Amino acid sequence: MRASVEEAGALLARSDSAGRRRRSPPPVQTASPRPGSLRRQSSSFREDVGHAASETYLVSRLTFTLLQYLGLGYRWMSQLLSLTIYAIVLMPGFIQVGYYYFFSSQVRRSVVYGDQPRNRLDLYIPEDNSRPCPVVAFVTGGAWIIGYKAWGALLGRRLAERGIIVACIDYRNFPQGTIGDMVHDASQGISFVCNNIASHGGDPNQIYLIGQSAGAHIAACALMEQAVKESGGNPVSWSLTQIKAYFGLSGGYNMHNLVDHFHERGLNRSIFLSIMEGEESLSRYSPEIVAKTSSAETIALLPLVVLMHGTEDYSIPSSSSQTFVDVLQQAGAQARLLLYEGKTHTDIFVQDPLRGGRDPLVEDVLSIIHADDANACQKIALAPTPRRLVFEWQLKLARKISPF
């Protein structure tokens, strides 16, 4: 195992340097756009497709090379097959979302926020941005291995239709990077949003952070790390005072308790420990444990924490959110738990939005963002109901074969 991890580390170093040699990101544009003329700060469609293809090839090649060192088990293969069939069943809905992602004038793709591979984010801009809009910084999931900023397109579209600017932050996946790199990337993406969103029509005083699955864990790590830095008087590039609330969707927050669970679900123990930089780093990257050991001054800096979880989530049990909320409340933080009865790991993030109609997740997020804005609540109530993107039989079939 030790030799495998060392070889994996060497592979990571080679992949990271290769990523830097392949491209030098363009300079970040922060100039304020003229009213009524929002300048797209993204690459062309062809460049986006080429970038996505090269990233997919690179990550896929590195993943399979790494698995040659660490082993490829039956459970992992069966999970991968289930994921493929799941995606095929829901493909008609995904194609419609993809069309919106690539061709909507409201989407600004691949805005550069840093100098590392995958340091890009997508912006979803409401049609009516005549006045500064609330902002959501979103960190997507993907088991720390297959995360990609475009996975947030469905949520970005739903929130943008209701007057919220959404920034979907990409980050280096494993084996391009380990958890420390992911947390660093997410924090840098949040910093970019806090310091530059005003030039895109956002309100820098109304920023909310959302993470989903692995992204919920990464975002929570970034949040706790920032609180520790600020309470210790260390220099920072963004402030927790700018984050009004953190929403953690279907996340895990104590990595010690999840190693065996993930192994049984198909994420090999050796791979997971490599992602988390070894067993000795599990506590450092467990927000629940960090919160337990943090000072009262650190906890006091945290924004409102809202954890959201389906009761039939088998990928990450809802008890993970329950325990973290309990720890935060005992430490003196503002924390709430929203449980979705009968919902799985992807129901509230994928299947429910594809179904159209009421979207419990979006409604709960908006109820907190607009808690003190009666006019905004009234506009949302009058907004058109999202249409169905797939048939009900597809959703039922997808639920049965979902690896989540």
Automatic annotation (TrEMBL):
Residues 121-326 form the BD-FAE-like domain. One of its GO terms (molecular function) is hydrolase activity. The chain crosses the membrane at residues 80-102. One of its GO terms (cellular component) is endoplasmic reticulum membrane. It is a multi-pass membrane protein. Keywords: Endoplasmic reticulum, Golgi apparatus, Hydrolase, Membrane, Transmembrane, Transmembrane helix. Its EC number is 3.1.1.n2. It is found in: Endoplasmic reticulum membrane; Golgi apparatus membrane. It catalyses: [protein]-C-terminal S-[(2E,6E)-farnesyl]-L-cysteine methyl ester + H2O = [protein]-C-terminal S-[(2E,6E)-farnesyl]-L-cysteine + methanol + H(+). Residues 1-45 are annotated as: Disordered. SUPFAM superfamilies: alpha/beta-Hydrolases (SSF53474). Belongs to the AB hydrolase superfamily. Isoprenylcysteine methylesterase family. Catalyzes the demethylation of isoprenylcysteine methylesters. This is protein-S-isoprenylcysteine alpha-carbonyl methylesterase. It comes from Zea mays.
